[in-house]
Amino acid sequence: MDMSDTVLFESVEKFIQNIDWGKTEVPNEVICLIKTNNSFRTRDLDSSASDYMVSFEGSLKSQYFEEYEYVCDNDKPIRSAIKTKGEYWIDECFSGKINIFSDTYIDFSNKDWYVLFELSFINGFLVKSKCVKCTKSDNIDRKTDQSDTQECFINKRQHKQHFLCNKFIKIYINCYARPIMWLVSKLTNKFPKFKKALLGVFVPFYYLF
Description:
By secondary structure, the chain is an alpha+beta fold. It folds into two domains: 5-138, no CATH class; 142-208. The chain is built from five helices and ten strands; from the N terminus they run E-H-E-H-E-E-E-E-E-E-E-E-H-H-H. Strands 1, 2, 3, 4, 5, 6, 7, 8, 9 and 10 form a ten-stranded mixed sheet that branches. Helix 4 (167-187) packs antiparallel against helix 5 (195-202). The chain is elongated, with a radius of gyration of 26 Å. It starts with a strand and ends in a 7-residue tail after the last helix.
């Protein structure tokens, strides 16, 4: 599981303007896509899938939420029912360098562009930004794979819809499958691990409903 953190900029336009590009050449179209996305990944902070923001002034902030225990109508707390509300941001006193990169594909001219930035912080304040790497690779294979995956998903959904529209299947579902599924759910309420086994035996195709 990718536990990298997310970084965004309160003013991505200011961030782009202050970048030291050095000798790295990045097409303007790619820069525009990066600005539009304004969401970056980093593995140099907590690596806990947290959200961070660089404010307009350049201070690094981390996202937090107030926590409270949900209480139901009878005023008895529900175990483990911890909810969140009230987003707020806390200043981080971080000194050091982090690398960030766009968290989505930067697709331009039939290529995927990977642009890496280095941010330098002192006491939680951004003092320098520079582009340290820009690479590109053909994305025809990736697009083809995604297209095939999407087409496969659509075909499966269409087959399922066609299957469920069959009048004999409708009779099977309404007159047999649903009553048996309801009964099995009642019988296995205390033993949920037997539910799938019983449904597999007594209700063929139950996973399609």
